[in-house]
Amino acid sequence: MPEITEDMMRIGELTADYKDIANRTMKIAKILEKGKNVEITTPSGTRLTMNIEGRTPDRDTGLFHKPGDWGNLPAGEACLAPVEGTTRGTLVIDTMGKIVKQPLIITVKNGRVQRFQGPDAAQLEALLKSADKNAYNIAELGIGTNPNARLTGVVLEDEKVLGTVHIALGDNTSYVGGHTKSKIHEDGILLQPTVKIDGRLIMKNGELLLS
Question: Positive or negative, the Cα torsion across 131, 137, 138, 140?
Fold first, then answer.
């Protein structure tokens, strides 16, 4: 529960119906588990593709009822590590906690960050350089599923917001199939995303489309 606040417990995402979150998270995870190719676009300019074939998604439901269950709170996401070397295109991070507060344009090729553009580019680039070469790896695709989560500038909460997507840079070894080690794992939030998996539209402009 890093950076947990009283507001999160009193009025925020910890007050959500976690059975509802779990149901939504499991539906998304099922689609991800069967998926191969993902396309993500956003109004701010993201045009990103990646391969997820064979990668098992984590189901961050917030329901920890049995001995050995674990996760983080606040919860609410389905996430996985894209296949290394497959992510390409333009990634526009709308917010990344204290690091990125204005849209940051990132050019991605062969699963790695190539170039940064934007007011906060130097700050993020300096962070990655200070870590290791694998900090430039596209490490995670996550889809938020918590309707009570709010954009507060705390990434722990921001990445759970229903209707958002997050893309992480750096380490992916905590995910099934991920084998890229780094000292860091930094999540960038994408707002109003449109997401297609194998051509199936599952989110349009931040609205989740699940039957």
Answer: negative
